[in-house]
Amino acid sequence: MQTEQLRIAILGAGNMGGAMARALAKSGMVPEGNIRVSNPSPAKLEALQAAFPGMYVSSSNMEVSADADVVIVAVKPWLVRMVLAEVAGQLKDDAIVVSVAAGVTLAQLDEYAGGGGRPTFRVIPNTAIEVGQGVSAVSAQHETDEQRQCIMGLFDTMGATFFVPENRLNAYMSLASCGIAYAFRYIRAAMEGGVEMGIRPDEAKRVVMQTLRGAVAVLEANGTHPEAEVDRVTTPGGITIRGLNEMEANGFTNAVIKGLKASNG
Predict the structure, then answer these.
(1) Which ranges of 28-163 does DSSP label H, i.e. alpha helix?
(2) CA 264, CA 43: separation in Å to the nearest integer?
(3) Alpha-carbon distance 236 to 191, whole Å?
(4) How many CA atoms lie within 13 A of 95 on its CB side?
(5) Closest CA to 63 of 9, 22, 6
(6) Are 75 and 11 in contact (CB under 8 A)?
(7) What is the pLDDT of residues 83-121, one digit of tens each?
(8) pLDDT tens sequence across 126-171
(9) Which of 100, 139, 153, 229 is the most buried (most CB within 10 A)?
(10) Helices and strands, number each (H, E), in the chain
(11) Which residues share a beta bridge with 73?
């Protein structure tokens, strides 16, 4: 499937739908004019079109999904059935349905889209897709290799994409979709510690963000386990090991694991 010829409909322009529309338009992988977005709120559509004048926007799900090759459903989980039921009758026979709604299974998507074994995908992204640094977990059914490559390619433009069994989606959602909130919370906590030690909040934020960027870059460059890099910066009797031990005494690792498992349901 040639992505430059794809017609993509995004039903919903909220946080996730709007982020995907912006990311696809910025990537240049799909022409702006081939990206169609619907939303009941005109303000969100106006903001999208102001940023990307070639993008087609409408308040009608039916209008944007007509003749679409890929229909991305980006609404709240309890609205997925209603939205798909509205457009199912006019979808092309080979149209691919993609849902980013948590908890709506592939079997349910197939049913809501009219049944018959249509190629359907579940994608669990996180909000960093808008800046091209997202993580997206993907599962599918009734898809061809070409269709899988197409959807994976679209989300690859927004960051890193992982094709996983459906029964592992929730675990990936905990690590990435929920995990980005946990990362923000760590940044906030580190900033507060910096402020208590006399560093201005804005500067503490910059220091913490660059430290995290550096940590990721080191792991990527060396291909090492995180604990190996911890060992490199801890010396016997040093201040780093004292700080690490104090964090562990207050449940740092256990809190992270328990938080992830709680998100996994």
Answers:
(1) 42-51, 61-65, 80-87, 106-112, 145-156
(2) 34
(3) 27
(4) 27
(5) 9
(6) yes
(7) 999 999 999 989 999 999 999 999 999 999 988 889 999
(8) 999 989 999 999 999 999 999 999 999 999 999 999 999 999 999 9
(9) 100
(10) 12, 8
(11) 11, 99
